[in-house]
Structure formats: C-alpha cells, structure tokens
Design goal:
The protein has 5 helices and 11 strands, in the order H-E-E-E-E-E-E-E-E-H-H-E-H-E-H-E. It has 437 residues and is of the alpha+beta class.
Length: 437
C-alpha cells in the first residue's frame, strides 16, 4: 500500500473517532432537502482503463485527491436520493497527471432514526476524462458504500463514508470482464435548505422549546426556564447557593426552616427563630427582668444582681430593720369611712416604696386596722380595703407584686391602745408592714 493509501486510511479512522465522541445538536430530520460538500481520497486498487490509448492502463495503483458536491433529498425517514459530482486527479508514474469528472445518482437507505444515523449508499454513474494524455474516454461505474451522518448544528450534518467503485479495468479477456476496483474515502458536511419539523425546535429535548429555553443546549427544568434546577425551587443551579435543597430566592436558593430570614447553612439555631446578631439564635430570655439572662440566672423568677448570679441577696433582718419597717406607714390618712388615701399621705408611701427598694429581697404583709367605733363587720371590710389601697399604691411605684405576700384587714381586733379615748382610737386606726420570713 502506498504512503497516500496509509495516510488516507489513518485520516478516515480519525474522523470516525471524532464522530463517535461528538454530541449532535438534534436528531437527523426524517424529511429534508440539502446540499453538501465532501473531501477525501480516491484510491485505485488495480489497473483502471480510463483512456483512449490502446493497451495502456490509466493507473498502476497511484491514488489521489477527491472532492465532491451533491444535492440530496430525504423522502422518508429511511429513504433518500442524491446527485453527486466529483473531481478526480489521477495518473501513472510514467504519464502526466490527468483530471476526471465523476458523476453519479445514489440511493441512500438509513437504518434507524436518531442523532447518529448509519446509512447504505447504492448507485451508479460515470468517470469522464477531462484532460491529460489519456484522451476523452468515459467509463461507467457501479458502487456501494457505508457511512454515518449526524447533526452538529440545527441546520448542518457531518457525514463520513466509504464507497467501493466497480469500473472499467485493463486487460479484458473472454473470461475476465476487466473490472477495476476503486475506493473512495470522504468526510463532508450536509447543509439543510429545508427540513421537516414536528412542533417547535427543542435542541436539548427537555420539553421546553428553544425560543422559550434560556439554556437551549443543556437539559433543564421548567422551574428553571429550561436551565438545570436540580432541587426544583425555580432558581437555576448556576445561581443557586444550595442547588440540592429547595430554598428561597431571597436567600439565593437556600432554605430557612424557622422563617427568621437567616439561611439554614448560616443559622446556628435553624429550627428556632432568632436574630442575625446571634447568628440565627433567639435573644436570651430574662424572665425576672433583672438584667441577668435565664441561661446564667440561678433564680429566674426572682430578680437579683449579676454579682449574685441573678439571685436576690438575702438581708439579715435586724431589730433596726424591723424598726424601719414598723414605722414606715405611720401617719397615713384616709377619707372618713372610705379606703381612699388622702393626698397628704403620698409622701409617707413614697418613702415606704424607697425602703422596699433598699431591701429588695424582703417580703412583707400589709395589715389594715380600725378603731372599735361602728359595727365589727363593717370595720373588717374597711380595714381590708385600706390595706389593698396601700398595696396598689406601692406596686404602682415599682414594688414587685410578688414581694407583697399578704394583704390583711383585722378591723378592731388588734388595738395598740385599749383606752376608750379619741387619742387611743386614732392610734388604733393604722396601716402596718410585717416582714415575712
């Protein structure tokens, strides 16, 4: 085999490998009209008799270039026709280079539908010598061949083929018809002037027409407008920070389980609503409002300073403290027969509230007392109401309700003076603190 023959075979095999690795744009159309061009090699396998000179073969095995133009049509998914015109330089080692025209009419039979389609080529035609020292001979030929076609663009197909050509050979006898064997190897392109389309073009076969597909050559989802969207959240993978988990557009495709506006992958407490300042965790609770959060507060229901772990500091109740509390409410006046505190008593109550703030851990009972004038039942009710009025005032001044553990009215039952004088009765009408252990 000549060096050109070996080179032609190698180029043809390389082209087949290229076809196998290519990714066609779409299926080959079932019906179409196209024109094409191919380039390749014309291999003469034995003595070819394209000449008008007697007893002299046209070619002794020397091969050359081949170029071809064609016009074709597919009439059905598996059947088509082509008219071909080729240009063949040829010659022998002892002669000048000659130029021949090759023309043929071919029938194409496709074996299947799809992206890459193998085909059988059967046809007949002629070689006509155009120039050189071999005269103006015409040889007729028959040929068959195999090839493959595949779409590389929506309007263009790549084709690779090989044809075995039977034509006029040298050294004819009664027993030998003188048949010469030529081989054509070619690679080319078919350009579609018209092709049948079934519905709108969908190059990537994702069910979304190309004119509506933002990624027409990549299989995608409707949620991503034709672009890949693995988690189906409507945010394409290219811009989705969490492409495998459904998420929110505002969070670049990442989920927010607790709905606090912080993406789960940045949220240290993803199942509990929180704040950004605490990386998605909630603000700490302070049940007793003492400024010490519950996580650090050993007494979450009792206010206390931070230096005592949120617990109130315990006051040792001395006689001096008892004296302060026992005198705290002396001099409070009410409207006659009522529980309404007179305005001139507000100062005394304000001092009592300040005392309660100074000893913040102490709890007290507020007791109401009356004199013995009038019916006992009425005095019991009045003493209770007056004690409640004092408690309400102190709570309004910031004393925690929990620190007032009892509000009691004793009426005339606990007099401090037993004399029946007006002075004694005035002392018996009073409000008292009682420290509760």
């Amino acid at each position: 085999m000549s060096a050109f023959n070996r080179l032609s075979h190698a180029a043809f095999l390389a082209a087949l490998v290229t076809v196998a690795g290519a990714a066609p744009a779409a299926d080959l159309p079932s019906k179409s009209v196209y024109f094409g061009v191919s380039l390749g090699g014309h291999l003469v396998l034995d003595d070819w008799d394209l000449n008008d000179v007697a007893d002299q073969p046209s070619n002794d095995g020397k091969s050359g270039f081949y170029g071809e133009l064609r016009l074709g049509a597919m009439f059905a998914p598996y059947f088509g026709m082509e008219a071909q015109v080729g240009f063949v330089p040829y010659g022998t080692e002892a002669s000048d280079t000659n130029f021949a025209l090759r023309g043929s009419l071919d029938m194409l039979i496709h074996f299947m539908k799809g992206k890459w389609v193998p085909f059988l080529d059967i046809g007949g035609g002629f070689y006509k010598n155009l120039s050189g020292d071999r005269g103006k001979d015409i040889d007729y030929e028959l040929h068959y061949g195999f090839g493959v076609r595949g779409m590389v663009l929506d309007w263009m197909a790549l084709r690779i083929e090989a044809r075995h050509v039977l034509t006029d050979g040298y050294d004819k006898t009664d027993s030998n018809p003188g048949v010469a064997n030529n081989l054509l190897l070619a690679i080319g392109l078919d350009f579609f002037a018209w092709r049948e389309q079934h519905g709108p073009l969908d190059s990537d076969k994702d069910g979304i027409p190309d004119d509506q597909d933002k990624c027409p050559t990549v299989w995608g989802h409707a949620s991503g407008k034709g672009c890949p969207d693995r988690d189906g959240d409507g945010i394409v993978d290219a811009t989705d920070r969490c492409p495998d988990v459904k998420g929110l557009l505002a969070l670049q495709g990442c989920p927010d389980t607790d709905g606090d506006g912080i993406a789960d992958d940045n949220d240290k407490c993803p199942t509990v609503p929180g704040v950004a300042a605490r990386q998605g965790c909630p603000e700490p609770k302070d049940t007793d409002k003492d400024g010490v959060i519950d996580d650090l507060d050993e007494c979450i229901n009792e206010p206390g300073p931070a230096d005592n772990k949120g617990c109130p500091k315990k006051t040792v109740v001395t006689e001096e403290i008892k004296k302060k509390f026992s005198g705290a409410l002396q001099g409070i006046e009410f409207d006659t027969g009522k529980s309404t505190i007179r305005q001139n008593s507000y100062g005394i109550l304000d001092k009592a509230a300040a005392l309660m703030a100074e000893f913040a851990d102490l709890k007290v009972a507020i007791e109401g007392h009356t004199d013995d004038q009038g019916k006992r039942a009425m005095n019991m009710k009045l003493s209770q109401a007056r004690a409640e009025s004092v408690a309400t005032y102190l709570i309004g001044k910031g004393v925690a309700k929990a620190r007032i553990v009892a509000i009691e009215g004793f009426g005339p039952d606990k007099p401090v003076e037993k004399a029946k004088t007006a002075k004694a009765r005035a002392k018996n009408r009073r409000i008292e603190f009682r420290i509760v252990p």
